[in-house]
Design a protein that fits this description.
homodimer, 121 residues, mainly alpha, 3-stranded antiparallel β-sheet, disordered C terminus, DNA-binding
DNA sequence: GATTCATTTCAAATCTTGTTGTATTGTCGA
DNA sequence: TCGACAATACAACAAGATTTGAAATGAATC
């Protein structure tokens, strides 16, 4: 992933409401949730939710499918995994010895065995 | 890591300049860089850099040390690793089967062997 | 086709962020 | 102490984000 691509993802996650929203959709994967249910669960007005849904959707972190008069939203977990990979490589590339002094894959997460990241072994 | 703690980190990373800044400091770990050098490398005015340094410093993603009349900044790699762990667990907790259909640690990153995440094996 | 319901769109108000130039603070060397 | 330099602080402005309620859109039910 390119840095230019990562910035809008961080923007999308840089609001408490949107982070809760994404986590909620991860929790409800793979079925997802319709907008009305999300609004109820987050306790915010529908129009405000719509604003945040549009923001995070535009970033690509969620997907939407029409179901009659409902709109069903789902977390784009693959993209999140790409983002995590980006962060991981940006943390270690060129500086394996600086990965927290760990030799077990930048210590990410605990229990990771050696050989996880090419630059970190 | 708590969600409340993660939000300011995403805020800190949600600007192209600050993401470049953090990556620059990772690249120059563990020596870090002084403010003037960062400003030159990023090609932005000192006062603007100071604004972004304050933002990302307040989030905790970098540290600062006084060296005479210089201020030396370093990336807080441990915190980044915590953030990555948070993202990883938030992506998978309770829904191992949704981790991109992978059984090799949410496919993060390529080469990860099984047993990485408790919820993903 | 009229009504109901889910959702978005819109406009307005407010708040926050980002940028720039200038001024200030603090440190070093002569 | 003085001048030069590193860096931040401040003020002002521009630009963008967030929130809300009301109105509009579109689909299901009767």
């Amino acid at each position: 992933m390119e840095t230019k691509r990562a910035v809008p993802l961080f923007e999308a996650l840089s609001s408490g409401i949107r982070l809760d929203l994404f986590r909620l959709l991860v929790k409800h994967a793979p079925d997802g949730l319709v907008a009305g249910d999300i609004a109820k669960l987050l306790g915010i007005p529908a129009s405000n939710l719509s604003f945040h849904l549009k923001t995070i959707l535009h970033a690509g972190l969620i997907t939407v499918d029409k179901e009659g008069k409902f709109l069903r939203y789902r977390a784009n977990i693959s993209l999140m995994i790409e983002l995590i990979s980006y962060l991981t490589s940006e943390c270690c590339t060129g500086n394996p010895e600086q990965c927290g002094g760990r030799r077990d894959g930048c210590g990410l997460p605990s229990g990771i065995s050696s050989g996880i990241l090419p630059d970190c072994t």
